[in-house]
Amino acid sequence: MRARDPQFSPDGKWLVASALREIRAWPLEGQDNGAGRTLVDDLEDWGAFIAFHPSGESLAYSDFLGDVVAVVPLDEGPRRVMPGKARGVPACSPDGRLLAVPSYLSLSSRWQTEDPNEELFIRVWDLESDRVEDLGPVPSRGTAFLAFDDDRRLRWVGPGNDELSGGEWVFDLDDGTVEVVAEEVEEWGRWVSSDGEFMLVYEQRGLFWKSSQGGEPRLITSHGEGDIAIDPSNQWMASGDSDGLVRVGPVTGEEPHLLYGHEGGTWGLAISPDGRWIASAGDDGTVRLWPMPDMSEPPLHALPHDELITKL
Known about the structure:
The chain has about 300 residues and is mainly beta. The chain has one helix at about 305-310, and strands spanning about 5-10, 15-20, 20-25, 35-40, 50, 60-65, 70-75, 80, 90, 100-105, 120-125, 130-140, 145-150, 155-160, 165-170, 180, 190, 200-205, 205-210, 220, 230, 235-240, 245-250, 255-260, 265-270, 275-280, 285-290. The strands form 7 sheets. A 4-stranded antiparallel sheet has the order 1-2-3-4, with no helix packed on it. A 4-stranded antiparallel sheet has the order 5-6-7-8, with no helix packed on it. β26 and β27 (about 285-290) form a beta hairpin.
């Protein structure tokens, strides 16, 4: 009963996540008398990828195994199933008009792309006009990063392999042009700070902090190889891993605080808009809500034994 992809609403009032066949929402500020609600109950068995609409009134999801993309309101109104199939992490434009999801042309395999002729496109829906557009194909069979730079420019990053180079492309949806930022990319995952000043990037060599101004990347060895979340102040990061630990520390990689509780690996992390809470989803089917550790204090496991006993 794996849970995945927890997300906070933009106003911080709701936490949503998927588990098994459902997407559920939980209130965080006492609304609805604290009662959670089921937004979707007919997913395939591995849950969905989720992205909030910028308005916070609805969310988009991509069924991990069902290849269905839909928009569902938080107020339990009717959902809107988008025409065409896709499978991947959704991205919404800042003005909320466009929705993008990676899409294989034939979707011959639900687990991985085994057909060497199968190509990856980026499917974009205009939520006002119902127009659908496929961008690409792109030179990868995976997506490490998909996000809108602005209302009309969509950035895609995909890793290379033995057959495809990967790359970083920016699509201009007004004039149809494509800017090739990089022709070869080895990234498996990318997370960008809200101010755009730095990013955290997983490569085959490990996790790196990279400045947008260039310079030498900084290897981070204190975190695992799971999902990453960066807090709104761009000072702290949280990471998950197959060991079930949630690690929380400075984005520059100093010793993190350790949050124990999950049995099995974690499958998604989020930090609330006010920076007070961390949400994690795990193999054990639980979604856990943690208070942000006091970052002015050293992690407990890093204290000398006598000081640790006193602290406890």
